[in-house]
Amino acid sequence: MKKIVSLIIVLITLGVNAQNKKWTLTECVEHALENNISVKQSELNLEATDIDRLLALGNFMPSLNLSSSVSENTGLSFNPVTNNAQTTTFLSFTGRGNIGYTLFDGLRNIREVQRAKIAKLASQYRLLKMKDDISLLVANSFLQVILNKANLEVLQSQNEVTIEQMERTQQLVDAGSLPQGDLLEIRAINASELQNIVNAENQIQISLISLAQLLLIKDYETFDVQDAGYNIVDGGIADKSVSEIMSGARDNRSEIKIAEQDVELAKKDVQLAKGNYLPTLSAFFGYDTRFTNAQSFIQDLDPDEPLVTQQIGVVEATGQPVVGQFPNTITRQAGAEPFFNQLYQNDGIGYGLSLNIPIFNGFSTRSNVKRSEINLRRSNFQLEQAELDLESNVYQAYVDAKGSLKSYEAAKSAVESQELAYDYAKERYDVGLTNAFDFSQSKLRYDNSKIDMNNAKYDYIFKLKVLELYFGVPANELKF
């Protein structure tokens, strides 16, 4: 009984822990990379390139085909063994085997294998880019949740101060030290703050649902994240020059590598199209055999009279007949040979070479070559555009990170200043030197400055991570 009770307690504890699980950013990113539909589609595209490569390698192998047919003929038909016309009903079987091998096809087989390798490499780069994009998207959504929670903490903390001030104001009003209007003003501030707290809680829930949907998690009610330990972690990226970051981006970013592989694919397509100008040489070998159960007619010598004398002409001068002896045959009907005997007796082979020389094909080869050359030029332009876009994005990310840092530092200074102003206003309000409205305005400015600092902090964290990704830091190695 004690064991059963202990087991129940353990299961309940595990269930509570599972419900209270809070996801870290690393867990969110890893879960997204394993379950995100876009990532899975990119992985399927990568698997498809293995099939294309297998097909390209298969072109180097000979082709082997076996075929057979069974038929029953009734009426006047040709015997497939004797090739004689017969009016009867018989069953026939034919078996064939063919082997073909391409000796030369304008080097298209070799280039198909080369193209398949390039296509796989391009798919790998696309998968890496997709994972980077998903990781960054998850990080942004995660930080939005943390930001909303931090803002809620600010509002709750300041509301606790407001409640204390409201209680103190109530005492001073009751004592006649402050007018009733100050109490009403503090109560209005408290009501406004409570409304802001409710809105902040809603923002947290909305951002959590957005993150859960991104992770394909359907349990919205219990889904939550860890909201501690996420500070500004600079691995030295902020001290690097934009030229250093640009160099790292060119060496590591998948956008450029994808565009480069697309150019190589276009080059191979041009070579494949030009290969159709060249002749194709193939070798073939074939084997076939046949069987029929039809009866045949055989000419045998008459054992009683093996020779017969027949006139074959007349001597012109004398008119004397000229005779000769000929074999005397009789026709008899013979049954069909056994199945395997006929397969052996009636088989045959054929082999040879086949040469196909393209002369004129309605300009299709020339058109395909021109189209492939245009695609190559387009791919070169896309590579050039990708380099320009990367340069623009890196400069933009660099400027954004620097600007976000300045905004964060300015927000911290504003908080320090507003805190001093708030403390001063609080002291004056406590001794009755200022009214509740002026005190509420000072408190509102202090609250807003702390929220602005949170916004600036997490905006800088995100833009710093974007800069690290451009520099070449893997998404799963980003530090927060």
UniProtKB/TrEMBL annotation:
Compartments where located: Cell outer membrane
Alphabetical list of Gene3D superfamilies matching this protein: Outer membrane efflux proteins (OEP)
GO molecular function: efflux transmembrane transporter activity; porin activity
Transmembrane segments: none
Coiled-coil segments on the chain, per record: 249-276
One Pfam family it belongs to: OEP
UniProt protein name: TolC family protein
